[in-house]
Amino acid sequence: MATHGRDEGGGEGNHEINYRRNRKQLAPQHYTSGGRMMSMQFDDDGEVIAMVTTDDLGEIDESLKPKPPPKLAPRGIRTFTVCRQSDETGVSGEGVVIEGVELASGHCIIHWLYPPPRGGIAIFDSLGDFLKVHVEPHPSNKTIITYDDGEQKTY
């Protein structure tokens, strides 16, 4: 809901203030008054709980400037399954034997579907490390990795 009010404060005369209610809170609003930019934040009752202004030269207060995002790890995951067309060791069997997740950081988490009912979990520093240990040494297994986007790789 948009509302308009008047600031009858000194200086350059009347200055219009615009504010709006947003999910039970009045959203922070910015306005200029006599060459100064002001930012006001309101509580649930419409009372001003914070006000920040620029100096008379028009330089923006540091608290008003956008902040860079925190330094976080990359986000996103890619899921896959591992299907063995044969099993040269006779341990894990044929068909889909692993569910896996490749994290944006490059780490790889695999869930062996054998032995039932729970299987086992392993964590690798990378998908490449997993492949070096469990796929590449067994080329006769004819392993197929299928990603959630439909991409397939055959080893």
Name the shape in a single word.
elongated
Per DSSP E runs of 2 or more residues, the count of β-strands stands at 12
Largest sheet: 6 strands, antiparallel
Strand residue percentage: 35-45%
Strand order of the largest sheet: 10-9-8-7-11-12
Report on the architecture of this protein:
There is one protein chain. This protein has 155 residues and is mostly beta strands. The protein has 2 domains: 2-64, Double Stranded RNA Binding Domain; 77-154, no CATH class. Helix content is 5%, strand content 45%. The chain has 1 helix and 12 strands. The strands form 3 sheets. A 6-stranded antiparallel sheet has the order 10-9-8-7-11-12. Strands 1-2-3 form a 3-stranded antiparallel sheet, with no helix packed on it. A 3-stranded antiparallel sheet has the order 4-5-6, with no helix packed on it. Mean pLDDT is 75; it is low at 1-28.
